[in-house]
Amino acid sequence: MVVFEAYKAARRSVIEQCSEFISSSHSFTHDLALCAVQMYGMVESASIVPDRAVASLAAGLPHFAAGWARCWGRDVFISLRGLFLTTGNFVAAREHILAFASTLKHGLIPNLLDSGRTPRYNSRDSPWWMIQNIQDYTKMSPNGIAILEDSVKRRFPADDEWVPWNDPKAFAYSSTIAEIIQEILQRHAEGIEFREYNAGPNLDMDMKDEGFNQKIWVDWATGIIYGGNRYNCGTWQDKMGSSAKAGNKGLPATPRDGAPVEITGLLKSTLTWLDRLSNQGKFPFKGVKATIDGQQKLITYKEWSDLLQNSFEQCYWVPEDPSEDRKYNINPKMVNRRGIYKDVYGTPKDREWSDYQFRSNFPLAMIVAPELFTPEKAMVALRQADKHLRGPLGMRTLDPADQQYRGDYDNANDSDDMSVAKGWNYHQGPEWVFPTGWFLMAYLKFDRIAGNGKKHPAYTFHHLSEILLAHRRHIDQDPWRGLPELTNSSKYMFSFLLTFLLANMFALDGGYCYDSCRTQAWSASTLLDVLEEMWQIQSQSVEPSS
After folding, report:
1. Structural domain includes residue 362
2. What digits encode the pLDDT tens for the residues 22-31?
3. Distance from C-alpha of 537 to C-alpha of 261, rounded to nearest angstrom
């Protein structure tokens, strides 16, 4: 009884210190908010700066509790809005933004921070997540716009030379956050090409030599950013094969080289925001310099944004009606499912089929850059995702109708089946929880514009709330008091007939995954984002923010 009362008092104390959204909400929101406490803390081996202990945000538990594996660039910034901004922990949000901004190198922030001592730069999406969070911070934190003037000491020299963290050249000059943002855009506009420092088995024992070569560039005909190659992983779907026996060692299962849809959305969001700030005199730059047709030109943020606006659906939309294919950049021979947005655009011709795979990444672009999407088309794609990708807790990472779909992740698999050996199918079907938040937020946004919610907003809220009941039950009953990283398609030992009957009556997905983190930062975060948006709509009767 003493322990129970102490727990209730501690829980109440945490909730009372959170934002009005948290403190005035129901127990499910409280449970999710407590994941921010669970994931954030002082861990001596995983500070966010190299020379002193500063509390850091873990990607998940138990696998990412400490050391170099605790703090990931993209995980921090996918999680930051929900776990820090919606809860009101603006101090922690600012500390993480400043810490990662100080490590900018090659126009990128680290995939793995390692306290800033030996950060690794092999993540193409991370800088765009950071800028999105800076944008969110300026809007949600009191006087948040002031962060653009904050100055950080730079971990590496301006010429990108690798130096130890305690070398005199380290932290020798400073940049403001506004200058950091501009540097990210300018470096991408110029094109980025480098080989990872310390490339070889000491850095990554599974990667082929070509994988250490990083290249990113802009197609100025469309404004779209491309990057990567067959042998490296630049986005969150980053499983590198490790089975020599099965033949997948050194081969990413989902390289996504080309233009992943979420990066295009994040870029559009950044450009729209900076154009507005620049016109208001709150951002000290107007655009980027780029060499086009042999001439250097100033491309304003609006000009770059307009290129994306004009090209996006032509490049990414796969129409329902084949007779409309001529209006879009479509190879009909590669189409597996229609009425969707491509997961990637511009994959090399020998793997062009991967552009047309139906995955759960496109709703993120809908959230941050809704203006890119025709509302009616957006709802078609979201209904497809609701039908084919959504599981009880997570979103399938690949369409079950895809021939590469493998729904059960087992990292200990030592078979000679290339498709699953050593967990090669990590992102080829297993149901990840955090994209559910993206899906729900996009559905909330677009169903109120083009769907049932246009006439009956309560329908949208009811549908989303019904989906969230499974998450509420899980976190209430789970011994880790969190939401998992991912779930598998369930495998039950029924007879054939019973399995057939149950499979047609119920979705046998959402099964326990032994190798999953039992509680994951971004799983709780993206659902907090959705609940906060619903709370804003209900309490203030305003449209969802972009």
Report:
1. yes
2. 999 999 999 9
3. 27
